[in-house]
Amino acid sequence: MRNEFDLLFEVNIAILLIVSLIVLVAIGVHIAIALGMTSALGIFLVTGADINAFQSVQSMLAATAYEAIRAYVFAVIPLFMLMGEFIGKSGVVTDVYRGINRLLRQLPGRLVIATIIGNALFSFVTGVSIASAAAFSRIAYPEMRRFGYHKGFALGAVAGSSCLGMLIPPSVLMIVWGILTEQSIGQIFAAGVFPGLLLATLFIFYVVAVAFLSPETVGIRSKIEEENDISRVDAMLEGDELSTTEFLISLLGIIVVIVAVLGGIWFGVFTPTEGAGAGAFIGLMLGIIKGMRWKEIYESILSVGRTSAPILLLLVTASLYSRTLAMTGMANAIESLFLGSGMEPWMIISVMVLIWFALGMIIDSISIMLLTAAIFAPIAVKLGYDPIAFAIIAIIAIEAGLLTPPFGLLVYTVKSAIQEIDPDVDVVSIFKSSTPYWILMLIGMVLIVIFPEIATYLPRLLF
Amino acid sequence: MSFITLSDVVSKSLMVLAAAWTFGLSFLVLGNIVGRFVFDAPIYGTAEIVSASIVVIVFLQVGFAIRSRSMLKADFLVVRLPINVQRIFLAISYFLGAAFFLMIITGGWEESILSYVEGEYEGEGALRVPSWPARWTVLIGSGLALVNYLVLASIDVFNLGPPGVGEERNSGSTINHGS
């Protein structure tokens, strides 16, 4: 009798909390506050819903505010963001984009390929795929228009490739997932390498295939023109004053940062936090070599001040939320709902992916992670999935969610970013051209579900 | 100087201080690595200083994050609603924000005072870091967060603030990223 009552009570609270969380997020309450207040409500209800309960809610909020992020590992977020900001402001990514563009001039569709690589790097340094899509649209789109690329095709590539950056370690999404699920951040970094290369290869194959099958999408209208294309490109690039030395410095710089930081972490030379500190320093050096001075350095530091605090504050309330999930029995209730439903493991994973897609229409990837990681990750582990492989599956699914028609946020971001340049492009045509990338990401994700070794091979080798 | 201007100056200064502090941390961490490998002499207490610093940095920045509308939120649905409904939702949103930080203050002030009086410290290892600076920053930061939610409410809900302060309203962007 008593157990049944308890269970009913738990299920009721769980439903109430989920509904209020969804309502609060939907009406535009700051996500950190929505998480925090829903947790406060949950704690209030399970501790007796009276004046004493209200006091314990307040002391728990205060304790969490002080304790939740008081750990060495959390410094990894602002420090990596500092590294990204220095690299981003130094202009090396644009150099690499232009350099690749020039190197590949014999290849049809080269601008799209350069965009994919450049934007992946750019979203890796910005750490937020939405921000990167907005910025890179303005860098790459005018260029592709200049060479007569199909408008939708050009923008679809920007939207698709900004997801790729989240799989390049040390991505902020990987760090946040590692913190939330208490997995080794270094291992998740390693796990992202092969899936990232796999997706990049799939993307590039797709672009080359399109370029061969329908040359007009990449601005080549006839056979004769195709022959003239190389000289035409050379002529158009003439005004382009990027020197080879500059390109090599930028390329080398990015490689040095990634190799030093990741190599150091993977070979146990330093912890992720130390890697981030070293990365920030190398990023600063790279910026100075590329001509950054006090003003730009100061701007970068301030910019991190603005962008890192909301994420860290989200982590504070996320820790409150995960505590509430445990205290109210909500985590158990959802877990038994999934595990007791009689669904096959792949069906449960599909449901999770569908939820991620739905969330990708309204909020950004870090917020999606904070809402779902604490619930989904333990279920996946109980189903027998490797936690490290699941981290990568989750990152791909959450990023793909931002591309999902008809409301994927990334597509709308790209559209609003080029509004001034070219107001004629409609959202439908961007969705049409970003859908192939979305499908390729799903294929990549399914491959990792079936062969988790794609993700787990490298971490097993290194750790 | 109006109250909003004053609050903006304070919020911004604390954010700049915290940003500089973050920059400083990267050198501390780097110094520790170099010290350990090159001179076989790590900087004692790096981990303890960094851990305490992160709490301080976040709460020094939170007021400005709120004021500059950098807090992550979903306004996908809201922007499609009539302006008066939007106002109501904004009012709810800012009220909850203010209430959240108020509860952190009411739940934490006693312990914060005690931590100073009793000389509480954190860390077992290389360095003992007193806990009161971080605890007090949590209180001060929460107070500033509370004030900034009220400032936003006065501007967005009651139309009291100077027009054009901060970012444009309802710009149609789905997520405010501050950068």
Question: Helices and strands of chain B: which structural class?
Answer: mainly alpha
Query: SS-based structural class of chain A?
Result: mainly alpha
Number of helices of chain B: 4
Rounded mean pLDDT of chain B is 80
Note the gap between the termini of chain B. 28 Å
Structure commentary:
The complex is a heterodimer of chains A (463) and B (179). Chain A has 463 residues and is mainly α. Chain A contains 21 helices and no strands. Chain A has helices spanning 2-26, 31-46, 51-67, 76-90, 92-103, 110-126, 129-146, 151-164, 172-181, 185-213, 223-237, 244-266, 272-289, 294-327, 330-339, 345-359, 365-382, 387-401, 409-417, 427-450, 453-462. In chain A, helix 10 crosses helix 20 (427-450). Chain A starts with a helix and ends with a helix. The mean pLDDT of chain A is 82. In chain B, 66% of the residues lie in helices and 2% in strands. Chain B has helices at residues 3-38, 46-67, 83-117, 132-157, and strands at 121-122, 129-130. Chain B has a two-stranded antiparallel ribbon with strand order 1-2. Chain B is elongated and about 65 Å long. In chain B, 46% of the residues are buried. Chains A and B meet through helix 1, helix 2, helix 3, helix 4 and helix 13 of A and helix 1, helix 2, helix 3 and helix 4 of B.
